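[09:14] KT: can someone run the structure on this one? pasting the chain below
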Amino acid sequence: MQYACALLAGAVLTASCAHGPRGNRDTLQRELADSLRAVLDAGIAASAFPGAYAVVGDSRGVLAEAGAGRIDWRPDAPAPDRRTIWDLASLTKVVGTTTALAQLVERRQVELDAPVERYLPEWRGPRQDVVRVRHLLTHTSGLPSFRPYDRQTQDPDSIARLLFLTGLERAPGDSMVYSDIGAFVMGEIVERVSGMTLDRYLAANVFTPLGMLHTGFNPPDSTWHRVAPTEIDSLRGGLVLGKVHDERAYYLGGVAAHAGLFSSAADLARFATMLLRGGTLDGARILDAGTLRQFTELAEPGRHNRALGWQKAPAPWAGAGMSLHAYGHTGFTGTSIAVDPELDMYIILLSNRVNPTRTNPRIGAVRARLANAVTGTVRARRNSTSNAGSQ
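[09:31] RB: done, structure tokens below
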């Protein structure tokens, strides 16, 4: 039986095992589309972002999608669609870096409980010999959240060296502190072990096999008419378009383990469907189902809400209706992905809420409203179908 259809502890059968007649699915799709439009239109009215696009699907594929607004505040800017390209920000960590590390763990090229210095012998400093790969994935390595090294230098090699040499702030394993620097070190492991740069590794092992044709780092300028611009940055010449928003990733050349990926709703829907199908899509096996479970289960119950790379519910992207089996992540630019194997459902939200400024905080409320609207609609429709079937 597929991972998405497995009986989970204390759970009911997932939706892919109980979708019911075609008419019920059609009704669900219409109701979900209405919910998406209502939430996104409210976000536009509240100036949460100039534009946004949302997709909801299950292990069978896309259920509903909708867009709102425009990709920029300019009145002549195009409306977003499923092919619009968005700066994913920290979704890079899970769609890219975590997936790569999970593959290397599955292939036994990396061990989760091995010291980081096994793979990066020159990564040395006080207490760093105690840091395990698992610590990096759960953000419990003791590394700080980030350092504004871009204010010291804009030289790529210098920034990379400063990131690599960053020392620990606390004992490994003591507490969870979300760390871009820890993600950078994970990317170094992927490159060292695979012998490939991160962008080439992901293209060859994840994006191309999945048919994610518009996902990658540094989108070519021939696609910039479809890229949603982000912040107005006076230090970088104005409106940031086609270049990564994150400053450290930008000065690293646009390819980084913590930020830098661009993608579309159509591509991310394929990625999320692969997750709900246990790591396989259209004959391409990205991960074994067991590896996927290992990386998406709560890593240290009672201590923090991290899986390996992923965040676990409860979280804003999950609203109040997702199960405790859900996992997801957010991106600073206004992106998020949420996957719930118990409900057999994913929710993708793509926006450029940092346009024109990162001081706009309204995306958090939109994420929660979207999750609540979608899960409420899904649960209500399935309860209705279940009740009708029992009569």
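[09:33] KT: thanks! The first strand starts at residue 51 and ends at 58.
[09:34] RB: yep, looked fine to me
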